[in-house]
């Protein structure tokens, strides 16, 4: 984070970088990717003094919800955005999910 950067500037830059990264995440041919998945929702949500990013998407017949705090920052912006996307990908691809779970319910990752 640039020391002169405000909270709003940081959040807007995070939003732009993550949208780009999430768009690439669902593209076929990228390995490892979530090809065949579909992003349904991405938002930045303010909670008291913190800001969280939330992503909802479907992949392999399941719906997922991923949320992480992005403000106050604990890493520089470029690292924070890469961690957000990679952590989302890793948790989906390596997770074990219960068979018979409600297919309409979001899986929290």
Report on the structure:
With 109 residues, this protein is of the alpha+beta class. Helix content is 34%, strand content 30%. The protein contains two helices and four strands. The chain has a four-stranded mixed beta sheet, with helices on one face. The longest helix has 19 residues, at 7-25. It starts with 6 loop residues before the first helix and ends with a strand. The model has no long low-confidence stretch (mean pLDDT 89).
Order of helices and strands: HEEEHE
Going across the major beta sheet, what is the strand order?
1-2-3-4
Radius of gyration: 15 Å
Q: What amount of the residues lies in strands?
A: 25-35%
Structural class: alpha+beta
Q: How many β-strands, per DSSP?
A: 4
Helix content: 25-40%
Q: Helical stretch count?
A: 2
Low-confidence stretches: none
Largest sheet: 4 strands, mixed
The backbone outline, from C-alpha atoms, is globular
Q: Termini distance?
A: 26 Å
Can I get a quick summary?
This protein is an alpha+beta fold. Helix content is 34%, strand content 30%.
Topology of helices and strands:
Layout: H1 7-25, E1 38-47, E2 50-59, E3 62-71, H2 77-94, E4 106-108
Parallel strand pairs: 3-4
Antiparallel strand pairs: 1-2, 2-3
Helix pairs in contact: 1-2
């Amino acid at each position: 984070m640039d020391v002169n950067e405000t909270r709003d500037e940081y959040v807007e830059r995070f939003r732009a970088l993550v949208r780009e990264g999430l768009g690439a995440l669902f593209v076929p041919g990228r390995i490892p990717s979530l090809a065949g998945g579909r992003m349904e929702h991405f938002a930045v949500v303010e909670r008291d003094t913190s800001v969280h990013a939330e992503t909802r998407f479907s992949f392999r017949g399941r719906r997922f919800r991923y949320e992480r705090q992005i403000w106050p920052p604990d890493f520089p912006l470029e690292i924070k955005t890469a961690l957000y996307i990679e952590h989302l990908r890793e948790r989906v691809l390596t997770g074990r999910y219960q068979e018979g779970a409600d297919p309409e319910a979001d899986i929290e990752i």
